[in-house]
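User: quick one
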Amino acid sequence: MVDKDTSSAGEIVPAEKTGTISRRQFFTGVGGLGVGIVLGGTLFNGLLLPDEVIAIPASQGYLLVDSKKCQGCNTCMMACSLTHHGVQSLSLSRIQVIQDPFAKFPDDKYIAQCRQCADPKCVTACPTGAMHVDTETGVRTVDVAKCIGCQECVYACEFNVSRAGWNFEEKHAQKCDLCLNTPFMDAEGGPGGQQACVAACPTGAISFVSEIPVQSDAGYEVNLRDEGWAALGYPIDDEGKVSPAEAALAE
Amino acid sequence: MQRELLFDSATWLVWLAPLLGVLAAGLTTRKDPVVKGDRVLRHDRAAIIEHWTHGIGTTVLLVSGIALGVWFLPALVGSGDPVWTMMDVHFGAVLVFLFGTFYYGTNTLLATKRFREHLPTKDAVEYTKRHYGLLLGFKKFTMPPERKYFESEKMAYILALASTVTIIITGLLKVAAHVMDIPAGVMAIVTPAHDVATVAMLAFFLAHVFFAAVLPMSWPVLRSMFTGYVDLEYAKHEHAGWLAQLGYEDARTEAAVDETAA
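Assistant: Done. Structure below.
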């Protein structure tokens, strides 16, 4: 161990002494001990400890949609953006209405809403815990301050389009939180409160439920066409071929 | 399969790098500057290693960090693979940067005179005025007897020191967030502080590269960051005060005369 500084002129300079050990001995000891602890800890953690098992509680709320009832007005997207960010921006909306102008009904519109998955890939993919499960409501949501912008969650979502979105203005991930954190909405949000998209949709194409739906397209895509819808003269079957009058006759 | 960030799969390397720097410094024997014939030893091998590990690490950290989009600067990489690649590049630079910085820091704590020679003196403003006044062609100025580092460099050192300390503390907290639950309130301070320190470091970095590598007058010192030596004649002209400290007779006399005149 080196405990003396040797100048180029050959002059021996005593190392600074602090008690019984020199400052150099102290730093060498700290460095060596630290390296040993990190290497030992890594080996212990990697080889001896079992894999972590994580239990994720279910969300207390879910959004059901009826894309066949959707008129493509984008009011839900505007309401989402407005209540969360205070601006009307289709790009900042956490719910997305995808419209294909070349397709015919019922394939011309598709509502892409977060499903609050039982096994949320976005949450498990997040390296910093920014995408997390809210302990009180079970809602899968983003803690913006902890997001490092890696976009792992965006690509981990198994649905197309990804329900974990990228806020290009503030540079962090975001997703539907069932209006848990809506600074620009007067009403209380979250599973026990109001959802902006549900409240704003003029045709009632979005609905909130507390029970977990079947995790499939059919499970979240339901027929929300009720008597009011039929009274308007719109078809109420999924193919859009049965008029309300015909449906009434059939009954 | 989703790729894993190195910040997640190899976090332990971030803790190992600074400790290796501390250990390496403890095992290093330094050489003090000395006049050898027509050359002067300005930087020993340890100083060269400190400088380039810290410098290269800082360069890559700045490029990759800014590309990822510092808080108020636009991100240059879009999404997906480019983001992850840039984060892995950032990770690699973090290791080099931490090793170099802790190697320097420990070496400095072992010989605090190396720290003191970086600190501005009461001559800082006057010497800087004279030094750059002369370079800019104001004939009424005479070259001040600068010591090993110009007084202007010493003032910039304070900015570099402050931004480096801030970047390391906030950066380590950002890495710690990968392995433990750091409160969101803490991260809300840490991230902007990291970004502001990055911009301060960028300002220092650009000025440092310009004055220490681009300007022809700095090339002898730049060369010494590879060879360790500067020419004696250069040192006599630019660092008379330093030569006097080293006990060089001619320079000591000249500096004494100059200081009397000043």
